[in-house]
Input
Amino acid sequence: MNLLVVGSVAFDNIETRAGEGKRLLGGSATYFSLAAAPFCTSRIVAVVGEDFTPEYEEVLTNRDIDIEGLQRAKGLTFAWGGTYSENFETRETQFTDLNVFADFSPELPASYRDSELVFLGNIQPSLQMDVLRQIDNPGLVAADTMNLWINDNREELLEVIRNIDILFINDEEALLLTGPYPLLKAASMLLEMGPDRVVIKRGEHGAFLFGAGKNFYVPAFPLDDIVDPTGAGDSFAGAFMGYLAQEEELNDESFRKAMITASAVASYTCEGFGVEKLKRLTPEKVLSRSEEIQDLTSI
Amino acid sequence: MNLLVVGSVAFDNIETRAGEGKRLLGGSATYFSLAAAPFCTSRIVAVVGEDFTPEYEEVLTNRDIDIEGLQRAKGLTFAWGGTYSENFETRETQFTDLNVFADFSPELPASYRDSELVFLGNIQPSLQMDVLRQIDNPGLVAADTMNLWINDNREELLEVIRNIDILFINDEEALLLTGPYPLLKAASMLLEMGPDRVVIKRGEHGAFLFGAGKNFYVPAFPLDDIVDPTGAGDSFAGAFMGYLAQEEELNDESFRKAMITASAVASYTCEGFGVEKLKRLTPEKVLSRSEEIQDLTSI
Output
């Protein structure tokens, strides 16, 4: 099945205790599509500026990512800078220059309209709906969101949530949407809003899958050393959807295997700066770590 | 195998969004021994005051807990009061009246000296060592600790850690001991301090077992409603050690099964005020929840 992602492509300045990197290729659509790359090609819908040179483009095309939907606009590419606290518990944003992303209006090439798996990355909810409307007959739609939209665009976000099959959300955002409840109760409330499944991401504490099928939990793989956790959540979603895209048929077990695959790929992301570790990630490496993750909870 | 625990017996005033309870039987030795009760009897070493009436005593003796080592002192029993924030993220201590616990000097009855499994609950490290010295030939010794001793009695605590087989510690305390590192690295550093195994408790985020055998992780059971998390950590340790006490022979797998059992019992503790749910906990109920916990991570 083919996979489409809409989201951001950005230049990131990142500082962690392991070092720093400037103008690293980042953004949700970048991490997502590279994380899906060991399993399937994906179609990317995003916008970049005139400073997006061929070297950056090649990071995507080298992994067979379809960039026909990557719009070129006058101006500069979205740029973001952040500094992580010593033990990665907090992150301070140094700057957010939306640049061409501020006027992003996603328009899908005709060749993208038959997309079967769709991931609406974390952008303004009304833009997520715009993308969804341009797809003829999507088979499975997932979306991510963030506190900004939960606070400022709640009604539009609720419309998105009514129209998707899987919601990806982190635990803090989940409680911001539902109110302060135990996670299981918050999950039930999110499921009542529309989706069949909810994936609640908890960073270093793993992730839960609630909804159709049984409840499932995957731990985060414990790392000896963390280099840069930027994009781990987008990588999680990308590997999850990428895994599903290569399945012949989707059943409950497929989603559980997708969770383990997602945790494996997200852990690789954290082991390098930016997308460094994702660039050359192979299905074999992912499988090997997936087995290690399963072994963590097996008696 | 017989099991000994040294720790506190206390009266707790607890307030959560689910309600409040006053003069509830609490304390680390209480939660520990009641959590072990579905699996084995335990011997308790603690101190209570003149206000410790037969009704409280019966909560322990009804579960066949051996209270010969429960000292009676002039004065009042240790009392503590705490209020949990709405979603149980923080806890504010209202009062801590050490009372007879301030002069606690653990003295073991002669009948306790042959104890095989020993749990040194969270008390002053030098008192933990005093208890250990009074046991002839312990087969397996575990200990818990807290930030107070890590900060104020580090050298004595390190002596305890050198002399035990299993350290129980929560993730914040672990990093307070080792410095701010990824959990896996902190675990290696703790193992270098002496114990064969380290159990890192993460509250609602489950627990890790590091050391001899493979690394193992057990999630916390997601609850629809949390009533009172007081004593969940002590219950975890009690069920862990209780499970081991009933095993014919201890191998690596025993410790992994003990982790799952511990998570199951700790989740029951959170479903009632104080020790309410532990009072009547049966091996069947624990087994049933243990299976649910295993099912959470099985494909």
